[in-house]
Amino acid sequence: MSDTRWLNQVAWDEQGLVPAIAQDYESGEVLMFAWMNREALEQTAASGEAVYWSRSRRKLWHKGEESGHIQRVHELRIDCDNDVVLLRIEQVGGIACHTGRRSCFFQKYLTDEGWQTVDGVLKDPAAIYGKAKQDGEHNHD
Amino acid sequence: MSDTRWLNQVAWDEQGLVPAIAQDYESGEVLMFAWMNREALEQTAASGEAVYWSRSRRKLWHKGEESGHIQRVHELRIDCDNDVVLLRIEQVGGIACHTGRRSCFFQKYLTDEGWQTVDGVLKDPAAIYGKAKQDGEHNHD
């Protein structure tokens, strides 16, 4: 589609964003949640790799740009209200979370115990991003 | 956990909400996306059935309260930033979307065609909610 009708059809919120859910295209695991602005969604569709909008850094964020853990988009969907995007992706490197875990949803609620970490770290974030980066601010990549 | 530490640990946004993703606990399908406030999350954990916060109606919304399509919660997770909740649920009636479809994410992006509806209606919404309701405002249940 050379025109931009499909981008206009998205019900962007007052900040010009939509929530985006990234799901493994094969296993169905929900790997992460992020936000997209119009440019991020356009670049995602054009490149076939997930591009988000980092609200904390206020810039486009090509997922995996530092870690190499890019996300290849197999399918892009939108919900009934046109205000949430679902990406069915292939997670390169098998790690979506900046903590070095496969999925960002590694904490499970247990009655009487609250949120408990139930999934392990697959790779030390220091090895993924380098020590210097780890000493700095929260890493989203 | 009789105390409310786990609720305090959630990074509620400036409106006191967190995004919530509902996923089929067996197939992994992402069925819908909604929001929760503190009370909604507390009731969800206590009752074992999904309770959301309806931003449009500004009230708690026990999913399925009108349709009967409640969501039985098998697992409740939270992400690395404590600001997104994932519910692994059993969708009673097999229909999560107010359009009568299994999932709200029934529109797929196709190059040159934009968003296209690719999943069918399983049950007429008029039969789910009754004719009167359908003539009214957008139905979230």
Notes on the structure:
The structure is a homodimer of 141-residue chains. With 141 residues, the first copy, chain A, is α+β, with helices and mostly antiparallel strands. Chain A has a domain at 5-94: Ubiquitin-like (UB roll), CATH 3.10.20. Helix content of chain A is 17%, strand content 33%. Chain A is built from four helices and eight strands; from the N terminus they run αββαββββββαα. In chain A, the strands form three sheets. In chain A, strands 2-1-6-5 form a four-stranded mixed sheet, with helices on one face. A two-stranded antiparallel sheet of chain A has the order 3-4. A two-stranded antiparallel ribbon of chain A has the order 7-8. The mean pLDDT of chain A is 93. Chain A binds chain B through residues 1-2, 5-6, 9, 19, 21, 23, 27-30, 32-33, 45, 75-82, 84, 86, 97-99, 101, 104-109, 111-115, 138, and chain B through 1-2, 5-6, 9, 19, 21, 23, 27-30, 32-33, 45, 75-82, 84, 86, 97-99, 101, 104-109, 111-115, 138. Strand 5 (71-78) of chain A pairs antiparallel with strand 7 of chain B, so a sheet runs across the interface.
Strands, helices and their partners?
Two copies of one chain form a homodimer.
Chain A: H1 5-8, E1 17-24, E2 30-37, H2 38-47, E3 51-54, E4 59-62, E5 71-78, E6 85-91, E7 107-110, E8 114-117, H3 125-129, H4 131-135
Parallel strand pairs in A: 1-6
Antiparallel strand pairs in A: 1-2, 3-4, 5-6, 7-8
